[in-house]
């Protein structure tokens, strides 16, 4: 039995439902941010992040900072690119476009390759682009939360190593870390930025990121210092190293409560091996996709290989609007999210199946949601 | 009886002890950041911030963003100053110096006026500086957490209005909001930046700020767009306005748990009128200063009018080091902070007396701390 007050089941692509233990970790009594107890917890949490992204390189660097997924873009844009340098942004939706906006805001010269709606730019297009210009970095959204499109990072890194090996490869893993396969070292990534409130299952409020040794070097050896202070990696690197080494350190006050919750969430998701957890997300995602197909509905991500396992963006039947369906779902105790894409916004809804709702099938969240969806569409006059 | 596990009393200058109700607010079940329930709470919290800083100007703008006090400096430096513009920083310690560093990082031309150790730059020096150059803004640390020095913001604004009325006046209120008198409208301030974990009594993890209508205009009418994304006021202003108007809005996911805790903290501190709460902090601070004088100890802030009511930085007796006293205090269940000032670092300790520890005298936190201090110094061989 959950200790949480009764509430509708939150199945948007983040924030997600909390495990009781994670939520209760937030209620930790107040501690000094430089006291022995918190230093130990924070240091341990940073080390756990290495396991979550599957890196054993001691020179790669985890960062956990008060903020959000968005702040991760700033870390990349402010520190790894200098004004006027070229960046290739691979976009499969709203969040790829926003990453491009952030980079542009900091003065990067952005070339954006867009996939078709519900798809990704092709490897051939990407290789062509990489061969035409010297890019400082290339970014890809591992799962674009606006479309539920999964990006093949492994193949991307292979292309980059072949065509332009000095280019850094940065993944936006906000909606993928802890639910999609991700092997930082094996694939050869240079950065993954994420947040606590999606598949990791912690409360919102943290920017969580991980950078390769060469990315950290780029940040620390800029020609022109980064015009950022809070988002300046040079200010944070020694702090993170100290905490992980068990030494108190101060640049800006971290949030002990959020770190406690993240620590619990990390331990839970690593307890049985992260591979198992990811396999469970794949299983649940396959089940969701099959179930909506039976309802006669189509995912926005049209090709199987482009479909994320974190969430499903679902096209609504002709004549049924999101503003009709979402309140009906809510009346049945299920919260989905509205569309968030410039072209197809009102035509689809988003179903997040991450974390405890996917992993703990005893909760029945997924079937509850699928049943509520079927009923709600029926009430809108739709029959599968 | 507190519902919190037994723990040493945290009396550093933030984070501070939590009220149970504030801490429990963090355990709220997961909500959509754009759902009706959270939109109402967030909007209300923004409106409550107006009351906390005593502003009734509908065109002044509250901001509550995942972050920390430090991020408030970025908001000021990234948005209100353009590269090469002059800024006058009034410093009474480490945090004034750091604000200057942040402004410099963003390209501002900083002139720093330092007070003597334990004091503030004089009004005459400030007026002289203001008359020598056209400053885009002047910043002052209301309470410098490194020294416990209080800055007279009211007189500062009067000087600026007289000598350089176009100059914006920005206060770092991280360690002053909710424990020192602060009248945003009456005094004519243009910005106050603060954080949740000091006198407000909420958990760390939020950057809380408030800007005058003319400051917001400066941010929105820059010659060159701010090279910042997460810390860009233009990205946040419409979001904050929407939430306060009860409309869901999205730029970056806020932390519902932290906002719930902040909402509870704000309601508590406004419940009996903020003036009463501030008067109580003055009373407790006076008592602490008298008590340490009886122990033969001196505050770092030497003049009465320069002494903050949030905390007391206390010089240790000759021959007694912070590394001797702090562990002895901890063994008696009291946590003070070490010194944090370039010149006098090891010679003093810091005692935070904010929030529930000051306001709720039934807890006995203050006397417990004073007794522990007396005993600890005795164990170090010091006799008053």
From TrEMBL, chains A, B:
Segments forming domain Aminotransferase class V: 28-343
Transmembrane segment boundaries: none
Gene3D superfamilies assigned: Aspartate Aminotransferase, domain 1, Type I PLP-dependent aspartate aminotransferase-like (Major domain)
PANTHER family given in the database record: ALANINE--GLYOXYLATE AMINOTRANSFERASE 1, AMINOTRANSFERASE CLASS V
InterPro entries per record: Aminotrans_V_dom, PyrdxlP-dep_Trfase, PyrdxlP-dep_Trfase_major, PyrdxlP-dep_Trfase_small, SP_NH2Trfase/AEP_transaminase
Annotated binding of substrate, by residue: 350
UniProt keyword list: Aminotransferase, Pyridoxal phosphate, Transferase
Cofactor(s) named in the record: pyridoxal 5'-phosphate
GO cellular component: peroxisome
GO molecular function annotations of the record: alanine-glyoxylate transaminase activity; L-serine-pyruvate transaminase activity
Species, as recorded: Cordyceps fumosorosea (strain ARSEF 2679) (Isaria fumosorosea)
An individual GO BP term: glycine biosynthetic process, by transamination of glyoxylate
Keyword Transferase: yes
Family: Belongs to the class-V pyridoxal-phosphate-dependent aminotransferase family.
Residues modified to N6-(pyridoxal phosphate)lysine: 198
Listed name of the protein: alanine--glyoxylate transaminase
EC number: 2.6.1.44
